[in-house]
Amino acid sequence: MSNEPGEGPDKQEALPKLERGTDLSRIFAFTDGVFAIAITLLVLQIDVPTGATGDSSLWSALKAEGTDFAAFAVSFLVIGMYWVGSHRSMRKVKEYDRGLMLLTLLYLFFVVLIPFSSQLLGEYGDVAPVSVVIYIVNLVCVSLSVALMQRHVIGAGIGKEEYDWDNRLSLKSSWFTTAVFVATVPLVFLIGPWAPAVWVLLRFDPYQRRRDRAYEKSATAG
To answer: How many CB atoms are closer than 10 A to CB 74?
Structure first.
């Protein structure tokens, strides 16, 4: 029996899901666009000095914006590293689904907040510890959303099988990064805006090191 005009097929289960597919190019493009905007907005927190009458007054005005420059540098590095990590993670995904799309939006939501929290850090980091806490919490949310994305990729089986080991190590690495960020919050009330210096511990991420060694070994063997 044929379907009436406007009606769906008899076997609805045969329909492909509209929010699932293998073409990740639009997700890449959208993500890159958001990152480009976020990283560009960072520089807007630095005001060009006005009213300078000579080198001395200009230099004094620039020194007064030292914390803004520092916040810009740190945030530029943070956003840049998350952009690199995003590309690396998506290259290990064979297809997308609705869950990954929603988690990607959550991830980008916190990414575009970084310019705001970065400006708070630059303006009030040396006088109001809560501004540093807000900045760190922003990064905790970014890192946590990355972990949720990676966990979804593994749980939904939408990752490339040959990179399953990498996806699992990446998830552990994201939990490690989140833990380091959270651990720095109490330090804010002890060392103020210098608390992010503790993030140097991220260089000793054991899961990232295992991933790097595995790829180095593979490259050598090849």
So the answer is: 20
Residue 159: give the domain boundaries: 23-221
Domain count, the chain: 1
Asked whether residue 4 is assigned to any structural domain, the reply reads: no
Chain length of the chain: 222
pLDDT digits (tens, 9 = 90+) for 204-219: 999 999 998 988 887 7
Judge contact between 170 and 147, C-beta under 8 A: no
Q: For residue 216, is it within any domain?
A: yes
pLDDT digits (tens, 9 = 90+) for 139-197: 999 999 999 999 999 999 999 999 999 999 999 999 999 999 999 999 998 888 888 88
